[in-house]
Amino acid sequence: MDERTPTYERTSRTTATRDRGRIGYQRAAAHELLDEAHHCHLGFTVDGEPRLLPTLHVRVGETLYLHGSTGSRPLLAARGDTGLPVCVAVTSLDGLVYGRSQFHHSANYRSVIAHGTAHLVTDEAEKRAAMTALVEKVGRGRATDSRPPTRKELAETAVLALPLREVSVRTRTGGVVDEPEDHALPHWAGVLPLRLVTGRPEPDAGVTAPLPDYLRADLSPWHTPAPLTGEHVRLEPLAESHVDGLWAATRDLEVWSFLSVPAPTGPADLAGIVRNALDAAWRGERVPWVIRDARTDEVIGSTSYYEINPAHRAVGIGHTFLGRRWWRTGANTEAKLLLLTRAFEELGAERVVWHTDIRNERSQRAIERLGATREAVLRRHRLRPDGSWRDTVQYAMFAEQWPEAQAELRKKLRPGVPVG
């Protein structure tokens, strides 16, 4: 059979006996699901008894590779020249269908069923290529971002190869198919869509490498913590690995005065603050950066975008805390200059806002020195960590104010000019 043909050839094992409208043989549809899905089950028999195992899979051309252990029964059975007769099912559940009648409850799904004889991969080059493809499936670029297997590890891993010849694609899409006489029944009917979503990546203990791009959420530029570099400070995406540095720089209680979180009593508390910031970033609510001293490379604080509204071209700057040793050094001024430059010149913002506790006069003076205008006092705006209500002073800067404000900020950062 020509592998370039758009469909797989029907066989007695792939021909539907019922619901024939839900089965197809399109190569493109089969390839798409095999490449997308991670749920794979391998079926085979042992001594006349059926077996079903979940496993990892990857498609390379018209071969499906299945991952296993060298000591597992299907892999042992596949060592012979005759191979192992198998049936593989790869499925994506796309929705639950609620009918007015119980009989017409169903599911929307896409499923590939492949029959054939699998053989153990013994050629080392093919085996390494299959292992690389398996790793690349979980993240494009991961193969070069991880250590390849040693000869010993490769020998302890088994890979089955199944030629894709007897393949069918089964699908169910659409809405409810109730009987006409049931349409008047007083029951809700419809489809509950389902989709697989990733959570925020959780680094292993001791990891200091930045989160790779293939694990980052697909965010707009407004929600992306792009690295920003100045003469005094560098801003880089906040990560759990920054906790120890942040704790060393900000353990002074005065640093945490008037902030919306309680002062941490140790690295564990600060780790919780960082996790909350990263969780908010994953939800698209914040863009958190860590601030580094550009000369010493020390972690000295953190700052964020928040209230991000690309449609209205507006963003807030806040959640800022900075080690006391770097107060009045130009570090905070340049960090804000970098964030304002990105907001107005790269993102096209029309409005940038700040919020601060009405009791925090030092913060209000700092925001005013940036060139922002005091707009309002938001009464009972939020709860403080001690449970009392906070009145919030709101400041804003518009795009037409930015050129003058930028010139003043750059002037403040010149050597010999007091930062204030």
From TrEMBL:
The keyword Coiled coil does not apply. It holds the Pfam family Pyridox_ox_2. One of its GO terms (molecular function) is acyltransferase activity. Keywords: Acyltransferase, Transferase. Its EC number is 2.3.1.-. The keyword Transferase applies. Residues 1-20 are annotated as: Disordered. It is an enzyme of class 2 (transferase). Residues 233-400 form the N-acetyltransferase domain. PANTHER family: BLL6696 PROTEIN (PTHR43610), N-ACETYLTRANSFERASE DOMAIN-CONTAINING PROTEIN (PTHR43610:SF1). This is Bifunctional pyridoxamine 5'-phosphate oxidase family protein/GNAT family N-acetyltransferase. It comes from Plantactinospora sonchi. The lineage of its organism: Bacteria, Bacillati, Actinomycetota, Actinomycetes, Micromonosporales.
